[in-house]
Amino acid sequence: MKNALGGVDTVLLLGGRSEIGLEIVRLLAGLGAGRVVLAARDGFDPPDLGAEVHVVPFDALDVHGHGAVFARATELVGDLDVVISAFGVLGTQERYDADPAAAAEAVAVNYGAHVSVGLHAARVLREQGHGTLVVLSSVAGARVRKANFVYGSAKAGLDGFAQGLGDALHGSGARVLIVRPGFVIGRMTKGLAPAPMSSTPRQVALATVAALRAGAPSVWVPRALGPAFRVLRLLPRALWRRLPR
Amino acid sequence: MTTFLTGWGRTAPTPARLARPRSVGQLRELVASAPRRGVVARGLGRSYGDAAQNAGGLVVDCTGLDAWTFDEGSGLVTASGGVSLHTLMTALVPQGWFVPVSPGTRHVTVGGAVAADVHGKNHHRDSSFGAHVRSLTLVTAGGEVLTLRPGHPLFAATVGGMGLTGVIAEVTFGCVPIRTSMMRVDVQRTADLDETMAVMADSDHRHRYTVAWIDLIARGRRMGRSVLTRGDHATPAEVKEAPPFAPGALARAPAWVPGGLLNGLSLRAFNELWYRRAPRRRTLTQGIAPFFHPLDGVEGWNRMYGPRGFVQYQFVVPLGAEETLRGIVATLSEHGSPSFLTVLKRFGPGSGGLLSFPMPGWTLALDLPAGGRGLSGLLRGFDRRVAGAGGRVYLAKDARLGAAMMAEMYPELERWRRIRDEADPAGLFRSDLARRLRL
């Protein structure tokens, strides 16, 4: 249960290897979360998180197996106070241009699988009457750019899905928190030059935990990206398409 | 009807189906039809945290179970779980009887008083509410109506059991005779914490009721300065004319109060004023309501903390652990934590309830706005100090403790679990508090 001061007890992280996801879990454990379920592909050795950790096998593309992941997680720790949907693949636009099948598969992970996970989470949290689903969206979806429009379009879809889900859950006691980081310097972006207003997984996690405790519906990381994108969304397309990246 | 419920602190609301039975028969039907998420009883909602909430489940509002009788020969009241102490006092005081234990508000139900095993200013002499219960009837998970007496394991698990062994349908308990409806009160100001504790330890036994209000904002040499009140029911010789007991809200907080009304500045001013207006030493006569329930005079005072609500932190440390108490008061005083009313009391023996809060020692209770920065970490630090000293926090006030600390603070928890599991193997009786603390 979320307590009076915003602390939680149980966390399910889907995408158990996610740097941002693990960083969020680490912070929540430091604030008192006692039991964590990491859902990840096979062969995963969980790091020490300062809490009781369970590992459950999870394959994002095996959407028919998602229900079982939630069933196992609730069996292990009871009510889920926080569910973090953090899995994803980045990939380069060049590669997707050359291999449309790989692009479709990436979209299936970055969007389709999140839809399945989100709906399962919604069912569980609605029945519980409490709990927050944290969805890792991205500024890439706030306005899709030509430099990574496969990835960006999946994130745009995910962001819209998460907004709709949050509205659908209104009044049920369950919530959705949408996290929209800019460029995150980490394993996923290794070899790429950081963009302006980039952040680290830890900064994203700190902002996420603060938003969780405050019960906010969404958070941009860094915060300045919010107002920046309100303006950038209005930029004429002729200008937008000339952006270098 | 699905409703979002909170405790008195107005934090962490969760939705539940709320039902209000008018008879034990209806209550049994509700328990039998409880959903997968379980059921818990609720009275007047004076628990500060999530004890009477059940996210996604059923909450039974017991205030419709309101029958009671009084036998003057034995001084015994038999009351349905939903009868409030206010109702009983209003009727019994003019007849010369008083409830055995009254917490800081009289707007609690008899069922809630047993489930939280509430205490009052007379704990050092008379223990807690559970110690005065002769028998109680419990609607169990199996739908039975059991009559339990002291000595029965399920009785010990129910007194202080936070409603998790069943719904308390009826309670029989002893009342105390009084000769007037007035209190003879001795008020004394003390200079610091050591004097407060010394005076309490020396003179508690001479009075039925004692409590100290502590100015937590005073620092340094004046740290822990207090206003001590010690009282007894007055005799006819002590009061010329004893007015009948006439409680009632004297003032009402407006429905909407700006969130910052109780902030650092106003609390500083309040604490200073409260200490200054108290006489150095004086004896006076006072009505029952202002003596026992000063805050009941301001209806809905919990709204003054604004929309984010507040938490109350109440702990007890055993006698001999005065250093821990002193250390926590010093931390609070340094931290500048704005607490509205901080109360210190010396406890006597416990009642035998397995999850009862009181134990012989010192208890401190403070209110803190929930939005305060660093509050979570501050209180978790206190938890460790309290548990390390063999103390505990009060579940009826708690809204943020964790499961590991709970197990450390309540050594009888395992025994309580075994008794509960036998009475309720499927875990039908559940609350948000039970989930949070993994009871």
UniProtKB/TrEMBL annotation, chain A:
It comes from the Bacteria. GO terms for molecular function: oxidoreductase activity. Keywords: Oxidoreductase. PROSITE patterns: ADH_SHORT. Pfam families: adh_short. The keyword Transit peptide does not apply. Coiled coil: none annotated. The keyword Cell inner membrane does not apply. Belongs to the short-chain dehydrogenases/reductases (SDR) family. PANTHER family: 5-KETO-D-GLUCONATE 5-REDUCTASE, DECAPRENYLPHOSPHORYL-2-KETO-BETA-D-ERYTHRO-PENTOSE REDUCTASE. This is SDR family NAD(P)-dependent oxidoreductase. The lineage of its organism: Bacteria, Bacillati, Actinomycetota, Actinomycetes, Streptosporangiales.
From TrEMBL, chain B:
Gene3D superfamilies: 3.30.465.10, Uridine Diphospho-n-acetylenolpyruvylglucosamine Reductase, domain 2, Vanillyl-alcohol Oxidase, Chain A, domain 4. Residues 11-178 form the FAD-binding PCMH-type domain. Pfam families: ALO (PF04030), FAD_binding_4 (PF01565). One of its GO terms (cellular component) is membrane. Keywords: Oxidoreductase. GO terms for molecular function: D-arabinono-1,4-lactone oxidase activity; FAD binding; L-gulono-1,4-lactone dehydrogenase activity. InterPro entries: ALO_C (IPR007173), FAD-bd_PCMH (IPR016166), FAD-bd_PCMH-like_sf (IPR036318), FAD-bd_PCMH_sub1 (IPR016167), FAD-bd_PCMH_sub2 (IPR016169), FAD_lactone_oxidase-like (IPR010031), Oxid_FAD_bind_N (IPR006094), Vanillyl_alc_oxidase_C-sub2 (IPR016171). This is FAD-binding oxidoreductase. The lineage of its organism: Bacteria, Bacillati, Actinomycetota, Actinomycetes, Streptosporangiales.
